[in-house]
Write the structure tokens for this entry.
Amino acid sequence: MASLHTNSHSEQSDLSSLKGFIPLIGLTGGIGSGKTAVSDLLGKLGAGIIDTDLIAHQITAPNGAAIDSIKNEFGSNFIDNTGALNRDRMRTLVFADPAARKQLEAITHPLIRQETIRQAKALTKEGAPYLVFVVPLLIESKSWQGVADLLVVVDCPKDLQIQRVMQRSNLSRDEVEKILQAQSSREARLQHADFILENQGNLADLEAEVAQLHQKILQIQKDQLSSS
């Protein structure tokens, strides 16, 4: 859900302390573009992966760090019978009410920020060669552009995005269209990209592209080490 993704400037300021010490890679793309597939491949190559969407799901899962505050702010009807956030109901609310979106973000963003920084520092200490921050709304936040050493965009045609999300999440075409409208346009993402991964559904092609990206990032790491 779009409103659960962090875009806080203070998060980026904290992460900037790692800049120059370890390559920081921003990975983004529209919903259904294949960000998870790419981050999984990079993880297999040794990258440290921090997925802000996964963190958002964790803090709104049963007994998640955000659940009590969400219940207090929005009411128990926004919590499902498992104790997790009722994402369908919240999605409907925040798309219709910008004030509700801001209320939700005020709860979730600080928690996502805290966990993002914790994971980044832990992975750095563990010796990851570089860090990949998977951020669905990275372009929208703008402040990431000053922190990431490389901004990677996973791209595919809009119709393919819609088909994937409808199949994956059992959403209607209209629901997916509304999510897309809340994100930057495909053109805006590509304009900001330092590296573009085309994901049309051929895994072998995607693996080859990711391998090329991995080598490019390792060169950034090598340059950082030689200049330190």
Q: What stands out?
A: The chain has one domain: 2-222.
